[in-house]
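Lab meeting prep.
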Amino acid sequence: MKQKNEKGMVLVVVIMLLATLTILGTAAFMQTATDLKISGKYKTNEEAFFAAETGIEEARARLRKNASSPLIDGHPAAAQWVAYIGTDTKAHNKGWDSGNPMHLKLASLQTALNYVVIVRHQTDSWGNILYWGDQDGDGICERNISKGKNIYIVTSFGSSGLSTAVIEAEMTRLPPIESPAALYVEAVTAIQGTSTHVIGTDGCGISDKPGIVTTGAVGSIGFSGNPTVSGSPNDIEYNATDINIQAIVDSFKDMADFTYEVAGATHTGSAVPGPGDGWGTPAAGATQQDPSSCACNTIVHYDTHNTDIKLSGGVTGCGILLVEGDLDMHGDFFWYGIVIATGSVRFTGGGNKNLTGSLLAGGSVDADIIGGNSNIIYCSDAVNDQTENRPLRILSWKELR
């Protein structure tokens, strides 16, 4: 009897063990299946998000003025203008009307990802087109209804499997830096030398400017040696609006092609680091008083930690030169574009100097050109060229779902 009871107990234990293993196996199978579903859902969610991001970047690239396959805004002042990127079916589903002259539809440049993009003009609550620009001339761009570049609302709808993602971004082309004159200064300034010329007459177009604009009072610009200052409507304008030079530098330095941190350093035209990195070489005009020209655009940024940088020995460049601190241009110097310094600017030493474009200085300018020629020539093309073909700036970005 005892042996039978023991066998019965063993059988019960075995049955219970098998039942437990079955339950555990079923639970493990169900958990694995759930994990696979979660993993699959996560993957398709990520793929949909990536597709939506790619749509945003395609629109951004194609809105760039020099894009190889551009998205051309033919109605920049029309709030009703809308552009679509994607297939006909997807665009139709988002509102594209092939018979509407305000609607533009472009095929996507790629087919591997599933998305459709809508591009509209940003407007205010009254339906006015919004622009990104420096409306009040203080050097800081802001949303406004009268000046600058269109702000675009780009909405990208990405999908993968049953997953969807929607991203919306505000973006804009960069407006030209507002240059009020050939030379802008904020401190007492000395213009010296018989061979110094500050020319505000537009050497590249019809947008004439004063030769010098200063925030200082009458008399804050001093002369020695009979230099020439000319422009329109006035040769010199005093008590001007204060431009936030640091804000301009801050808005462009993150896009710099060349960045240097120095303290009281000297960089020469053949040195590396420095101009030898390839900043570009302007083509000289017929005389030193004529504008130069250049086909390349760079942004060069110097952070001098509140000291100075001396550019010496035949420095050349094309683009935007940003200096946080003082700038000393010694010897030959040729620049096509805009030179912006938060501190003082000095032209020293011999040699020829031609700055075609504009110079903005947060401090003073000492054009000491003993044994040489210093020429600052306003050129609207040289100013406008520097931002025209830059990537669009993202003003805001958010995931809608």
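Slide two material, second protein:
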Amino acid sequence: MKVKKGFEMQNVCGEHILVPAGVENVDFSRIISLNPTAAFLWEHASKLETFTVDNMVEALLEEYDVEEGIAREDCRLIAERWSEMGLIEE
């Protein structure tokens, strides 16, 4: 997977918001807000040319005190949601 070009994460009033940077991505009908963990994972994934759920799990385990099974399920769900929203490409 890879992060789709044209989205930038910004901190707006303490909230992590994904902002479309290109005209093809502009959809003002929704705002994409990330919780701190999802923002951490987005930042990590956006630095990689490609990433996997395993990459996300490794980063999460290094940063947070969480059980691997819980981290894996959370990362799988986040990646699935990002895919549904068109934020990442396979």
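Talking points for slide two:
Strands lie at 2-3, 7-12, 15-20, 32-34, 88-89.
The domain at 2-89 is CATH 1.10.10 (Arc Repressor Mutant, subunit A).
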